Task: structure prediction
Amino acid sequence: MISTEGRPQWWSMAITRSALRLIPAGDTRDRWQQELVTELYGLSRTEQARHTWGVVTRAPALRAAATAPDRIVPEAVMRKPLRCRVGWHKWSHRYTDEHLRYLECTRCHKQGDAYDYLPPMGWG
Ligand SMILES: [Zn+2]
Result:
């Protein structure tokens, strides 16, 4: 869903940047801040809140993954994106040939089920 405002709320950008300060300063942190703030553009306030909460709750895991000794393997050749390695998949709805809906990560192509997906709060 694209909001007409486009630009993220100040609090979502500030909290996202602050949470990522857990990652040691440098190119990695800069890249994550840029990428995750960019993802806020075009989201509704509710979606921004959910995204921001996701950053806050996963920042420690991102830090651990970003500082892990096995990170000497260049990210470009890693088989699984860093966020997916910490369980933060980018779920998208897909349909089987029988028109049944399921979830698949657009980054690593992991297939999830309803339990892997947190529906927006208040939508039942
Ligand atoms: Zn994934």
User: Anything to note?
Assistant: The longest helix spans residues 45-67. The CA atoms of residues 67 and 74 lie 13 Å apart. The pocket of zinc ion is lined by residues 84, 89, 105, 107-108, 110 (CB under 6 Å). The chain has two domains: 1-86, 89-117.
